[in-house]
Write a structure and sequence with these properties.
This protein is of the alpha/beta class. It contains 14 helices and eight strands. The protein has one domain: P-loop containing nucleotide triphosphate hydrolases (Rossmann fold, 3-Layer(aba) Sandwich), CATH 3.40.50.300. Strands 3-4-2-5-1-6-7-8 form an eight-stranded mixed β-sheet, with helices on both faces. InterPro entries: P-loop_NTPase. This is ParA family protein.
Length: about 280
Amino acid sequence: MGQIAFWSIGHGTGVTSSVAAIASIIGSEYRIRTLVSQPQGEECTLERGFSRSINTYSRDLATDAGTGLDALVRLARSGKLERETVKNNALLIERDRLDLLSGSERMNRLQFENASGLIGNIYANARNYYDCILLDIRSGTDSPAAARALSEADLVVVCLTQNADMLERYFNRNGWPEELHGKKQLLLFSGYDPRSKYKAANILRKYGRREPALTVPYSSDFRDAINDGDIKGFMARSRSVDRRHDNYPFMLEVRRTAEKLLEEIGINTRLKHVDAAKGAS
């Protein structure tokens, strides 16, 4: 079981949409406790993408008591983090399977970064309750909170695009944060276009990398679902589409990615799949 950090060397790479898709498929198809969060002091787009699915009671509680990381930082300062403290301050997406811990709405960027130690303690505490923690961390190298998340992650998913400049920067290790060196990594191409000549296999071959890469294809329907706050609804509608459906390639690759990530942190995906009792995998 463990913590997975999603990171990119540059901004605008589709990291958040990929995290949202992977979290949603894990929450709908695996019997494990999963937390997804965006530990940033600015944009909190994950919560907006799931807004139609957030449990009403959770929303009311957050309004009364403060939201997500803001409430937890106060508790951490008081030494009041317990086994289910993070759970009790998270938003319910799938009962007993997927919670969302919202980012800060009250701290500015400087305040948030100065609280990076406390924020790291919060996610460390979350491990006492959750089997899988997915963190969409700030891209680049200028965030102490992101640096700590990278250093404490069991696995770093490096999100790339098919942009030649970004590929050069990553594979030549220009601007790598210190915490990434020696860290277990998997490559994920976000918003992937399989018709481009910059296919994942060709990119890896060019840079002498032998490991396979994961892909999340671009989907206009999924992008619309994010804007509508209906990620969960999109996943429910698309779970059983056949090969002829436009959303089939997207769902196939998101499932493959989710399964691979869970296996990398020691989760038996066959045993934990919701259809395991029926003999399906």
